[in-house]
């Protein structure tokens, strides 16, 4: 279960940033999670609770924003959103789309804190 090691990293990153900002408490950690990240959201949430236990983040909430897969189609010369991660083909022309623009993210992008 690699979600636990990811959750531990998220807690560590959030703790470091909260300390740097002089936060008294972390209320929420905002995370972008791409559809191609290979991370199961439910497993990550459970792992986050375990990783945050007995830390300053113990009462914080993990807020996950799902990031869809977007690719660049060289045939259509435009960005496309894929309806399924199972098929990396352009939904307009059916051509291959090896250039992934988004959907691989695992990114802490905001913290809600009290000071």
Describe the structure.
The chain starts with a helix and ends with a strand. A 3-stranded mixed β-sheet has the order 2-1-6, covered by helices on one side. It has a 3-stranded antiparallel β-sheet with strand order 4-3-5, with no helix packed on it. 27% of the residues lie in helices and 33% in strands. By secondary structure, the chain is an alpha+beta fold. It has one domain (2-114): hypothetical protein PF0899 fold (2-Layer Sandwich), CATH 3.30.2320.80. Strand 3 and strand 4 (78-81) form a beta hairpin.
Biggest β-sheet description: 3 strands, mixed
Outline: elongated
Structural Rg? 17 Å
H-E order: HEHEEEEE
Strand content: 25-35%
Helix content: 25-40%
β-strand number: 6
Strand arrangement, major sheet: 2-1-6
CATH topology: hypothetical protein PF0899 fold
Low-pLDDT stretches: none
Total helices: the number is: 2
For the record, the CATH architecture stands as 2-Layer Sandwich
Quickly count the domains: 1
Distance between the termini: 34 Å
Structural class: alpha+beta
Give the rounded overall mean pLDDT.
94
CATH class group? Alpha Beta
């Amino acid at each position: 279960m690699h979600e636990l090691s990811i959750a531990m990293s998220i807690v560590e990153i959030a703790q470091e940033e909260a300390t740097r900002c002089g936060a008294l408490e972390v209320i929420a950690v905002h995370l972008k999670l791409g559809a191609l990240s290979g991370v199961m959201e439910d497993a990550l949430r459970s792992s986050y609770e375990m990783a945050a236990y007995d830390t300053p983040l113990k009462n914080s909430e993990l807020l996950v924003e799902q990031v869809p897969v977007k690719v660049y189609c060289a045939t259509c010369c435009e960005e496309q959103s894929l309806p399924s991660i199972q098929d990396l083909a352009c939904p307009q022309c059916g051509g291959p789309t090896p250039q992934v623009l988004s959907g691989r993210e695992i990114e802490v992008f905001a913290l809600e804190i009290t000071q």
